[in-house]
Write a structure and sequence with these properties.
By secondary structure, the chain is α/β, with parallel strands linked by helices. It folds into two domains: 169 residues, HUPs (Rossmann fold); 108 residues, Pantoate-beta-alanine ligase, C-terminal domain (Pantoate--beta-alanine Ligase, Chain: A,domain 2, 2-Layer Sandwich), CATH 3.30.1300.10. The chain is built from eleven helices and nine strands. The chain has a six-stranded parallel sheet with strand order 1-4-3-2-5-6, with helices on both faces. The site of pantoate has 10 residues, from strand 2 and helix 6.
């Protein structure tokens, strides 16, 4: 496994990789959710490139850029065990040299949900991912369902800018008690960690109601709020129901696949989670075919 920091060296080494290439972009502090992406990329491609870069442009000034968890030696050990070919670990100066001034803005699908709470976030994500797509020249890129809106934004960006690669979506990997794996889980104290699986319980309650025929958005959302309210430490930022392809808000009963998503704070830690309704779309092929699917 080769570890590369510089752009020219990445281009040289990438040319030497045989066959199809799977790209897994990450910000490091790898957990089983990332490793599931890497393993899928490994099983579907001849070569695998993982990037580790804590992208400053997707963090607002008041967010956790400075304390975002970092463990490069640990990450590299895990990636070596997974049989990764190349790891790209650029510095911020490599990705955004002095006088850098080009950004990618995705419009409608980046506006609501996370985009509303974090107005600059998707501009940073779309920009860095476009740069990584250009550098990697991959055949497929792998992202986790936990960041569902990110997937929709990246899909839209790749389609609109004619990147010739396939975006694949892996279902969320969870702890035994249902908490979605996230590098930010390590910020939680013991009480917050105990309370955090309430997000998963809320998704399950709504999923069960949907399965038994409930389609009224107001009632489905109410059920999520009622469940979240059972945890005193949970401060809800939003709970929302959107069309899983377009992210348009859903206000009346429909049988099109829906994205139920939420952001909840536990003290200083902000957690997000989501599921697709019906829940049987929470499989690799179903998600890849559904979440952010481009119809035009
Ligand atoms: O999901 C992430 O870890 C990041 O947003 C990504 C896609 C690596 C871009 O910085």
């Amino acid at each position: 496994m080769q570890v590369i920091e510089a752009i020219e060296a990445l281009r040289q080494q990438r040319k030497k990789l045989p066959g199809t290439l799977g790209l897994v972009p990450t910000m490091g502090a790898l957990h089983d959710g990332h490793l599931a992406l890497v393993e899928t990329a490994r099983s579907e491609n001849d070569s695998v490139l993982v990037t580790i870069f804590i992208n400053p442009t997707q963090f607002a000034a008041n967010e956790d850029l400075d304390r975002y968890p970092r463990d490069l030696p640990g990450d590299l050990r895990l990636l070596e065990q997974c049989g990764v070919d190349l790891v790209f670990t650029p510095t911020p100066e490599v990705m955004y040299p002095a006088r850098y001034q080009t950004y990618v803005i995705v419009e409608d699908v980046a506006q609501g949900l996370e985009g509303k709470q974090r107005p600059e976030h998707f501009r940073g994500v779309a920009t860095v991912v476009a740069k990584l797509f250009n550098l990697a020249q991959a055949d497929c890129a792998y992202f986790g369902q936990k960041d569902a809106q990110q997937v929709v934004v990246i899909r839209r960006m790749a389609y609109d800018l004619n990147f010739p690669l396939e975006i694949k979506i892996h279902p969320t990997i969870r702890e035994a008690d249902g908490l979605a794996m996230s590098s930010r889980n390590r910020y939680l104290n013991a009480d917050e960690r105990k309370a955090a699986p309430v997000l998963y319980r809320a998704l399950q309650v709504v999923g069960a109601a949907y399965r038994s025929g409930e389609r009224q958005p107001k009632i489905l959302l109410q059920k999520a709020h009622d469940t979240l309210r059972t945890e005193a430490l949970a401060q809800v930022e939003y709970v929302a129901l959107n069309d899983a392809r377009t992210l348009e808000r859903v206000e009346s009963p429909t049988d099109t696949p829906l994205l139920l998503s939420m952001a909840v704070r536990f003290g200083g830690t902000r957690l997000i989670d989501n599921c697709l309704l019906p829940l049987e779309f929470n499989d690799y092929a179903g998600l890849t075919a559904t979440l952010g699917a481009i119809n035009t």
